[in-house]
Fold this protein.
Amino acid sequence: MRTDLADSAISPARSGHDILISLSAFGADEVRRHGQLWFAELSLAAGADGVEVRSELLLDAARELPALAKLVAAHGKRVVYSCADGLWNTDGRLDQRALEDSLTAAHALGARQLKMSIGGFDCGSHTSLCHLHQQLQSADVELLIENDQTDMAGTLSALQYFFYSAQAKGLSLGMTFDMGNWHWTGECAQQAATAFAPQVRYVHCKGVQRQPQRWVAVPLAQSSAPWRAILRKLPAGVPWAIEYPLAGDDLAEVTRREIADLRQLAQVLAKQKNSPASTHPWAPA
């Protein structure tokens, strides 16, 4: 059931958070049918501050990426490129081709940020961190490490080990914090938010519900997870992306409403930090 924000006293003015839409939120089948450009146009028309383009949903990258870059630039919006491949293979070797292809795609898109998971990074991967550092220094693209839904690259211990190892080699990386993915790996999202908050540069907003055999992504207002407490632990002002399902007969209106709700939530959280006694219904407990 949706949370009613109609009676909020919070001003509709913009918060410090940019609200993006991960284009996978519209469903893989629909996006492949219409193309990411179509959904990017819808997202920006609905008021999004940018979009996240997904590698796994590209059908013709050579054609789609320049068209998406032109659209985003024309609107003065931001764009993030998401690569579905991990940085390291399951044998612990740096996936040089995935890295180079992703950096090339990010440049074609005009994206200043590239999102990837660590894949199979392990104790034998340390020597490749220096090489990764060198490539990123000349790439003019910020690499953000995401917690995915695997034990290799989505647990607290795996990611703490990676960030510690990278820092020891002089490689300081930011993080894409996916609020929902921790549930797939059986981790505590609040504990992870506390641990990684200093490194978080981008947040995937995703609610979750448990079905008999699996977790499913849902809008925050329908989530069984303590999403208010999680968001409260994360840094203010970093971009948020909708990565929960967006669907409905009037998709543009659904998208517009979800963007507006997240903007309002960002303002509530900012107000909450300044006034712990806030009693707004979306305010963190």
Notes: Strands lie at 19-22, 50-54, 78-88, 113-119, 142-146, 174-178, 200-205, 207-211, 214-218, 240-242. The first strand starts at residue 19 and ends at 22. The two ends are 19 Å apart (CA to CA). The chain has one domain: 19-246.
